[in-house]
Amino acid sequence: MKRYSLGIIGCGNMAKAILRALVSETVVYLMKQNGIRISLSVSDTDNEKFDDIDCRRITTYTDNSELVAASEIVLLAVKPQAAQTALDGIDFGDKIVMSIMAGVNLKRLKSMISGAVNKFVRVMPNLNARYGCSVNAYCCDGLSEEEEEVVLNILGAFGRAYKVDECFMNSVTGISGSGPAFCFMFIDAFIQKAVSCGFGREVSKELVLDTLYGCLENVRNYDGDISELVDSVCSKGGTTIEGVNYLKKADFENAVKQAITKSEKRSEELEKNI
Description:
The protein is an alpha/beta fold. 52% of the residues lie in helices and 17% in strands. Helix 5 links the parallel strand 5 (96-99) and strand 6 (119-124). The protein is elongated, with a radius of gyration of 22 Å. The relative contact order is 0.10.
């Protein structure tokens, strides 16, 4: 059994989601099956952030240097603008440093860290980590196969890991990092319309979610072009084609693509300015 200590700097929503996943019985069991056991710690200058932390299984620190000293793997979960202040004066030695900071590329990450560190992982997760369904795109530098396998186990605890070249990280930020917000807007519009038709809020929500669930299963199990699925719901002169034609006239597809592009470009700007 290989034992590792993981420390997270910053105790915000994403850090808490990751910690909750890592202490779950299912994840602990699966990691044991893979020959891995991980001890956990988290640091934050705000003690109140620890109120809903399981302190029996997670060690808490208010001093980031103490956390780093006690950890073999350090995950940076602070805002990019606050990173340098949080890391100043800390010797990271030869730790594995992971980062979920948006817009901070590997080159910039390396410049923030003091010590003999040559093992870096950049990760773009998303909000669905709350329910263990995050899309975790990552790229890394300097890790051995065994070390990368540990990273994959950590990322797999709260979602699915996708290794990508770093040149795609800004695109991933727009698609899967920001994407949940666009999906939530779409779902909310559906629910609001159902409510306006006279259905109760809960019934409206279930109608929409069950519809979306079935659509996801259709797409997941269909090998053809998704436009063919759209056509399969439509019939000439029917009800669906009216709505589909309206969405086409409203440039729906392009609006979605442009929203992703805007987020992608903003990620590129952050990467240049941080």
